[in-house]
Design brief:
rod-shaped
Length: 137
């Protein structure tokens, strides 16, 4: 019959391994949830507004951001508890993913802003052309 150990150092070591595993798992999930490179490059739309709306959808990072947040929470807890012997790789991966997600979110915001501007710009240009056509008569 095996004897279960309840030594605090052993338990802490197991908990630290589990915590690191959770951080790594959330980071992997975040990477898998990033937008597909082809989805932001290839478009199927009839006009510029359709392209921008498709791009906005393709640049959605909600799931990746949630997984990254979960990874950071576990990482911070582990760091504050001094549970990780060497966590430089985790910190670097978190920083890299955070920067990438911020870049994608910036592109999403740019596409959203432009998509919001195009219809009114088109209308203004059409009105200007109608005014010009009316003055020529």
């Amino acid at each position: 019959m095996s004897q279960t150990t309840f030594d605090e150092d052993d338990l802490f070591g197991e908990a630290a391994e589990e915590m690191r595993g959770e951080v790594e798992s959330h980071l992997a999930d975040a990477r898998e949830s990033l937008p597909d490179a082809d989805a932001i490059w290839e478009v199927d739309a009839d006009n510029a507004l359709g392209v921008l709306n498709g791009l906005k959808s393709a640049l959605d990072t909600a799931d990746a951001a949630e997984h990254l947040r979960a990874a950071k929470k576990q990482y911070v807890m582990g760091e504050r508890a001094d549970a990780f012997e060497d966590a430089d790789d985790l910190e670097a991966e978190i920083d890299d993913l955070e920067e990438l997600i911020e870049d994608i979110e910036d592109a999403h915001d740019d596409a959203s802003e432009l998509a919001g501007t195009l219809p009114s710009l088109r209308s203004t240009l059409q009105d200007a052309m109608e005014d010009e056509d009316g003055e020529d008569e």
